[in-house]
User: What shape does this take?
Amino acid sequence: MSFFFIISILYINIVLSEIYPLKKISTNLKTLHRKRRSLDSGKEDSFLENAYGDSHTLYYYYATLYLGHKKIPQTYILDTGSPTTTSPCNKCLQCGKHLNSPYELDNDSDIINCYTDKCSLVSSSVCTDHKCGFSISYSEGSQLAGFFTMQEIHLEMINKKPNITTNSFKIPIGCTTKETHLFNTQLADGIMGLNNSGKSFVTLLFNQKIISKNLFTICFGQNDGYFSIGNIDTSFHNSKIEYVPLFPGESNFYVKLNEIRIGKEIIPINNYRVFIDSGTTISYFPSEIYNSLINNFNSVCNNIPNKKCGKFRDIPGLGYCGFFNTKEDKEKALEEYWPNITLYFDGYNYTLRGIDYSYDYNDKENKEIGACLGFEGERASKITFGGTFMHNHDIIFDKDNQRIGFAAADCNRRNLNENNNNDISNSKDDNNKNNNNKDNNKDNKSKNIFEEKSVETEKNFNFNNFVFYIILLFLLIIILIIIFICFKKVCKGRRYQPQIDESSNNQKKGIDILEIK
Assistant: This one.
């Protein structure tokens, strides 16, 4: 029976991996969990979560929340430029197809009404049909609209077993009823508002005393990363934390930048603020600064013989990219030949290597191996640091003390483990799901990658099924053999008794014959 129980558990795990692919934790990721120290000792007042995604195929990073008593998984893009946390619910009639099905409202009592204390907790500017609602527009044309509900929340933890928090809490979560443009096609279900306002996701947790500190950290690798809430995990820091003060009174995270150094050249900065926006894929500089960066970048690379920096050209929708003969040539160029970019803030110098500020570009159709600079130019009076300028650093958003901290860290799971398994590959949807990150030109490329990953997941699932059926067949053969042996013994016993009876009868008949004679 114990053997049957083990096989049943194996089959249940296989089925669950098909239904809820985001819950699947790879062997290498489990190893990573064991390496991390726990942020808390038995008390859940801080949380360490997985961050999934990248800057070159998915173009954003997201975390998972589990909603309601049924613990329905919902994925949210980590966005320090948004105030609202929302994903589609079953009331949405204008929403796209995402990684998970819309979450269900238990009943209308979950809906937050206008002019209530609960409505004052969130960034609300809309009141329709007495519902505390929202309507958010983004610069690239996307829009979200809906209303707020009180939802029971569980977090996905790295340093816990099971990996979903045992305790839950209720906070306002948006029910998206309308999505447009990039939101309608993205893979992630929704967006997690993490800006510097007093009504964003982390501050809601802090105000309800769910976490002890009003801070969070984001550590993006080239593939995946981690996201901590309420405390700082220094397990994989490679340097001490250096802090930079924020501009006071801003709902977003702005810091002052004094100058930029690329290679040995210094680019002066005049009255520019830096907006740190984790929801933007790449980084943006005003045109004059961008042109200076490109000119100095080319100047450094032109002094390196044999095109070891790469052969560069502009790729529409992607930017300035270098191409290489082999993957090894590309990796060596990023680590050794591409110049460092150092950002001089008040009191701290933030240095990015080529491997940090770049993102991969692989054109399988043309068999090109490339890497693109993770920044572009635009007509603007501010600098935006997106995901590409946050790579391989743990960025600490300390809202209590209104400062930003920087620490070099091992965020990239590919560096932490021998093999990298990105859990996003277990997608339920073969269609491409793009992001809300101002770059819809990458749509077709993202679609092809996710279709390939879906095929790979399907092959793995088929293999697991094959193994299961082989084991089941083996068990059936053993059972049939046991039944045959038992049956044979029983039949043998039944044949033996009549022989004895027959012999006795013959003997008795013989006696009778003798007596007659």
